[in-house]
Amino acid sequence: CRANRQTGKVHLFSGIAVCMHCGYKLRIHKCHGHHYLQCETKLISTQSCPGAFIPEAELERLVLNELKALNQQLLDQSRVQREISFEASLNAQKERIASEHKGYQEKVDELDFAIRQLYIDKTKELIDAKDFFFMNEGFQEEKAKFEALARACKEQIADLESRIRREGDRQ
Predict the structure, then answer these.
(1) Model confidence over 47-74: pLDDT tens digits?
(2) How does strand 53-55 pair with strand 26-31?
């Protein structure tokens, strides 16, 4: 990077912009109030390099467009990563709730079995009617509690599946 001898300023593209034909660094020139970047090799030997010549404003526009495209690509990647993370989080919640649902359903099945066994014990006169009604009432209450928990889990799973589908539709 070399500073201008008159102004002492270093140009934005100084030492960065190179000729696409020969790889030589482009130098800034001013003509009719406009700045241009030009390959010095062409001035020395036209056989060595056909030369690069580009207005500074055009190069700035190209660089800005490329930076915008890269920025958009990075933003898109960031958005996709957030969506993937969000969807993974929803799927993890769904799996956790499905596991809870399975546990509640197993309890309901166990209580159903216990209630049937209790009835069999009553019919075999292993327990009296008073004990049967007392124990049956407790088992029925507990079964109703676990059935309500299982229903709530199913509703939560349905809600999560709906949210996952909506996220998938947005993409």
Answers:
(1) 777 777 788 888 888 888 888 888 777 7
(2) unpaired
Dist CA 93 CA 72 (whole Å)? 31
- The model's pLDDT over 20-50, given as tens digits with 9 standing for 90+, comes to 888 888 888 888 888 888 888 877 777 777 7
Q: What pTM was estimated for this model as a whole? A: 0.49
Quote the Cα angle for 155-80-157, to 5°. 10
The span from the CA of 109 to the CA of 127, in Å, is 22
Neighbours of 36 (CB within 10 A): 18
- Whole-angstrom distance, CA of residue 37 vs CA of residue 72: 28
Q: Which helix (H) or strand (E) holds 23?
A: none
Q: What span, in angstroms and rounded, lies between the C-alpha atoms of 18 and 13?
A: 9
**Can you point out the beta strands (E) in 56-143?**
none
Give the phi and the psi of residue 120 in degrees, each rounded to 5. Answer: -60, -45
